[in-house]
Design goal:
Structural class: mainly alpha
Radius of gyration: 52 Å
Largest sheet: none
Helix content: over 70%
Distance between the termini: 156 Å
Shape: rod-shaped
Number of domains: 1
Length: about 140
């Protein structure tokens, strides 16, 4: 074998090796691109699912708020009617302080009379008293 044939053989083998390397890395690159496309599709799908779930939650929250408003509408209507009735009612001027204090005293007296009925035998009975007989005192 001559040196030219050795160079030609070396060149052919290096070209074959580079071709095989290019094929190998080309297939790897193609697989990586396919994987990236699949990942992107999965991410888009996950984002879509997340957006749908968020929209469902927003809708449920909105329904809950509307149900709360509907539940309290009767209370609001009653409050509005009461407010309007109070507005239309005759004015209630403030009473003098002396009149209010006299009413308080009368109420207290009535309450005291109701809770403590008059009792003729209230307190210690004179027949049972031993204070004047000296039985409870010390000897001199």
């Amino acid at each position: 074998m001559t040196w030219t044939s050795t160079i030609a053989l070396s060149l052919a083998s290096s070209l074959a090796a580079s071709g095989a390397t290019a094929l190998y890395f080309g297939s790897r690159l193609s697989a990586a691109r396919a994987s990236a496309r699949l990942f992107k599709a999965c991410m888009v799908d996950a984002e879509t699912r997340a957006l749908r779930a968020e929209a469902r939650l927003d809708l449920n929250h909105h329904k809950h708020v509307e149900a709360g408003k509907a539940a309290h509408s009767a209370t609001r209507a009653l409050r509005a009617a009461t407010t309007e009735a109070l507005r239309r009612a005759a004015p209630n001027p403030p009473r003098p302080r002396a009149e209010i204090e006299a009413e308080i005293i009368a109420r207290r007296a009535a309450r005291k009379a109701a809770t403590n009925p008059l009792d003729a035998g209230r307190g210690a009975s004179p027949a049972l008293s031993t204070a004047g007989e000296g039985s409870g005192s010390l000897p001199p």
